[in-house]
Write a structure and sequence with these properties.
2 copies of one chain form a homodimer. Helices cover 41% and strands 24% of the residues of chain A. In chain A, strands 1-2-3-5-4-6-7-8-9 form a 9-stranded mixed beta sheet, with helices on both faces. The interface between A and B is medium-sized, with 22 and 22 residues. Strand 9 of chain A pairs antiparallel with strand 9 of chain B. Chains A, B: This is Dienelactone hydrolase. Chains A, B: InterPro entries: AB_hydrolase_fold.
Chain lengths: 246, 246
């Protein structure tokens, strides 16, 4: 893990860009974080549009989390941002967009072809990032995961025991295979669903919530469309992490 | 409205029992409430088991609300507690219990016979109670409604303009007619659903949430059975009222 830039934001949060091999990422730590007072970490789930495009939303979430005493970090998805294109994924994404724009039901084949290889490739990268982040003296634990591309969150919740709580955004297509994996998840979950998100399959999100094996799981459904998560819903998610990571 | 008893609870909350005609009720006001600093009011929705049996849960909610600066009040449902039996309602309730215990689907006829007359009778009583409560100098406004027997909450939200926000518990049977009324509701809503509440029709609760006309509506689904609403869900409901009544 190589830090490539560093700046202090207005509120004292330290923002550091890094590379992990050829994967770019960003780490935000509250001013209070130090080797003698290490802080818990929230992984900010992947940004399907790429880190640059998602930066304003990511930094807002990072600063909100820092105010609660959490470090946050994220890395670029395979095939996103400046990372090398990935022809199979591009094709799957194109097929999916075409189906959505034509108002067709998106077939399981298209969803599988788009999401499953992404999960396979991304999850080990997030685990490597976690290794590197937890090796920093100012980052303690426990670790939470917060984000979209819900299938990556589901897989991480199953395979990565260092993640003790997850806040997931039910706003993306879910392969059928993930419903089975969801049954194996046992950590506390906080699921956000934008009820009138036209690009999202509401019933699939409800079925996935039902499938999770966790004893503590909450579904928060709100109005406002895909990107219109209300401020109070963000506050509730923050409280979830405070309950489980402090 | 006649006060019939008065006591100070440990935390300074003033608990007063009252009668409104022949309807018993209870009013809780925070120690801070006075004519010069009147407080907002939350109506604690009806207690189907009767005020006496529900008292421990009601007073806990009242004290929690008082700590946030709210007065709370509730009245006995028609046919509940010490109020005169109501043979038609008793019969409907018996039919409903029998169907539930036999594991049968509860028919729309049984649900209608149980709930609709209760809504018709109870809602004007709650409105009279509101008249009397708002006439007290230590009770200001605005007014919220929080509670179960969700159909009473729906009707009140439609017909009672003094109620500006409602937290509803989706834990009871809902007549089909209420789905149409739900479309007329426009105030902010916070709906609690116990996901694995076996006595509740989850799909009906989701359909009702979908039907509400409110621009701001949130559904919070949690685990823990009908009476196992987690503490953090209660806190989230309290924050909803703080957002809308302060």
């Amino acid at each position: 893990m190589q830090f490539t830039s560093e700046q202090r934001l207005d509120d004292g949060v330290l923002e550091r860009e890094f590379t992990l091999g050829d994967i770019p990422g960003i780490l935000w730590t509250p001013a209070s974080a130090s080797a003698s007072t290490p802080v818990p970490l929230i992984l900010l789930g992947p940004a399907p549009l790429g880190l640059r495009k998602m930066y304003p939303r990511l930094v807002a979430r990072a600063q909100h989390s820092a105010a609660e005493g959490f470090a946050t970090a994220t890395i670029e998805l395979p095939g996103s941002g400046d990372r090398p294109r990935w022809p199979a994924a591009e094709q799957a994404r194109t097929d999916l967009r075409r189906a959505v724009e034509a108002g067709e039901t998106v077939s399981d084949e298209i969803i599988d072809a788009f999401i499953l290889p992404l999960v396979e490739k991304a999850v080990p990268e997030w685990q490597s990032a976690l290794d590197a982040l937890l090796a920093l003296p100012e980052i303690g634990g426990p670790v939470g995961y917060s984000g979209g591309v819900i299938s990556i969150g589901v897989r991480l919740a199953v395979v990565e025991p260092r993640i003790v709580a997850a806040g997931l955004f039910a706003g993306s297509f879910v392969p059928r295979a993930m419903f089975e994996e969801a049954r194996q998840v046992t950590i506390p979950l906080h699921i956000l669903l934008q009820w009138d998100d036209e690009g999202n399959d509401r019933q699939a999100a409800l079925d996935l919530f039902d499938a999770f094996g966790s004893k503590e799981k909450s579904l928060h459904a709100n109005m406002g469309g895909h990107t219109g998560v209300p401020q109070f819903a963000g506050d509730a998610a923050a409280q979830f992490f405070t309950r489980h990571l402090k």
